[in-house]
Amino acid sequence: MKLYRLSARQYLPIRPEVAWEFLSNPANLQKITPSHMGFKILSGADQPMYPGQIIQYSVAPVKGIRMRWVTEITHVKEGAYFVDEQRFGPYRLWHHKHFIAEVDNGVVMEDLIDYKLPLGPLGQLAQSFFVKKQLTGIFRFRERVLAERFGTLAGKPSSLSIETI
Fold it and tell me: CDD domains, per this entry (predicted)?
């Protein structure tokens, strides 16, 4: 079974505290997820983020097919990073690290997601034909929304890649 890694990096001209306040608030996830995903937070997003927090979502990764996704916030270092891990949902493994680091005139946000798909060879086909494209689209959408909301740092290009590790 293959392990995949999505790596996304974006520079924003905001203070680290502003980035942390927005990105660590689970309720904001819906704002940075494309509407065609039918993403809805069902529970767990009504408090500031903390280790052990369980958040339940409803999502439609394929039109007309709705599923629950349950994640746990496993690590939080205030102002610097947090980690969410899938407990129940569409992936066999989902381990998502969110980093925020101060740079000249702003912050760099970095997402590192290690994931595995279910169904062996069928999952690998889904990765090639569907999942990689969908995740790329989700993170490109997120990049646009954050750039519209906060702006971008001149000369600091964003990056996005998905690879097999």
Answer: SRPBCC_3
